[in-house]
Structures are given as C-alpha cells and as structure tokens.
Amino acid sequence: MKRIAICILLSILAATVLAAGCTGSLEESGLVPGADSTPAVTQATAMQGTDGGAAIQLPPPRQDSNASLERVLLTRRSVSRYRTDRPLALSEVSQLLWAAQGITGPEGRRTAPSAGRTYPLEVYVVAGNVNDLPAGIYHYLPDGHQLERLAEGDVRQALSAAALDQAEVREAPADIVITAFPERTRNFGDRAERYVFLEAGHAAQNVLLQAVALNLSSIPVGGFNDTRVRSVLSLAENQVPLYIMPVGTKA
User: Fold this and answer.
1) Are strands 121-127 and 54-57 parallel, antiparallel or unpaired?
2) CATH class of 33-248
3) How many CA atoms are closer than 13 Å to the CA of 137, on its beta-carbon side?
4) At a CB cut-off of 8 Å and minimum separation 6, what does 93 contact?
5) pTM higher than the cut 0.85
6) Is the separation of the CB atoms in 234 and 150 below 8 Å?
7) How far apart are CA 133 and CA 186, in angstroms?
8) What are the average pLDDT values for consecutive 10-residue runs of the chain, which has 251 residues?
9) Where exactly are the structural domains of the chain?
C-alpha cells in the first residue's frame, strides 16, 4: 500500500509540474495572429537580447495613411544620396520592417507572399543614425514586432566595404538587409531556389514603396560580396544575403 501511495503522489507531482510549464497562454507569448501585444510607445522597451543587451519592442505599425498606392508607385525612384543630418525615427524603422515581413493575419500570414508559407526570409537592420535606437545590428522578429539586438556599434562602413564601397550603404541612416535560408523551401524541389528569390523581391518592393509613403527614399543594392556581408552580420553559413537596402531622406 505504501508503494502504491508513493506512486500516486509522484504521478500527481509530475502532472502538476507539466501543467505549470504549459500555463502560459498564446496571448502571453505574443504569438496570437492579429493580437495587438505591442505597446503604444515611441521609444524602445527594453527586454533581454541575444548579446546580453536590450531587445526592442517596436512602435506599432500604422495600417493606413494619406499616401495612395498609385501616387507611391508613380513617385518611387532609386536614390543613392542621403542627408547625413537627418536621422530616421524609430517609428519609421518599425514601419519599414513591418512592410518587409510584418504579420498581417491568422496563421502568421505576412505582408509579402511566401510559397507554401515557408517564410525563408530573415530581415536585419544595420542602424547608424536612428533616434532612440543605439547603433548596432538588429534582427527583425515578426512575431511580436520586435528587434533582437545582435551586436553594438556602427558597422555601416564595414557593410559598405563589403558592398564594393558603395557610398549609400554607409551614408544612409540605416540599412535593411534581406537574407534567406533556402532550405526552408526545399519541398518545392527544383523550383525551391526560384521561390526564395521571388519572395525577396516581394519584400524589397514593399520596403521601397513604404519608404516613399513615409517621405523617405531607398535603393535596392545587389552588388556585394556574400562572404564579407555574412561576416559583418555574423550570418549562418547556410544563410544567403540577397539585398542591402539603404533608407533615408534624399539629399
């Protein structure tokens, strides 16, 4: 009887521990599609990041504006010279990242279409002159609309050197870098790589158009050394850099 009682107590204890580990709701984790878990702030809200510093809770993105799609399409131009005295606002960075890969609906659907919803893209910000955002390298987390700080310091010069010394990369207040893990689309066989490139183009065009809607300018840069860009951003070996997109105010 004593052995049976001990077994029962152990079973109850195990069930209690398991239940305690599962009590966090989806709302608490910020993973409920469409749930607005982003506080209405204009400055960064500190959390623990991967470099031991602060991660960033971004301001909530706007979902409407006075800029018509037709007007944005008409006026979009590639711009390679930016005002160095005009920083980006954190809210502008927030809006640009949302345009690239923000979550817009159930099941984690995003602003850019993805073949089979495989989402091979990962987006980064190289910040140099952004209000309320210290210079550094940041990884965008669509779930929760957050930035994960990967490294401190202004690396725009190093990124420019990796991009054939193109001046716009070091002069813009920030660079958005679009990368991909092609293996996420491997189930599509011979067409897998093509789908990754198509998706990167969708996301890049979203950024370009969103920039115009914010009275900003950008340019898609594809000329760079993959290995050197991977080194600057400390990307994984199987991660492919596809775009560098300087963003700022036209000079």
Assistant:
1) unpaired
2) alpha beta
3) 19
4) 58, 125, 127, 130, 133, 174
5) no
6) yes
7) 36
8) 40 36 30 29 39 77 94 96 96 98 92 94 98 97 96 97 97 98 94 95 98 98 98 97 98 95
9) 33-248
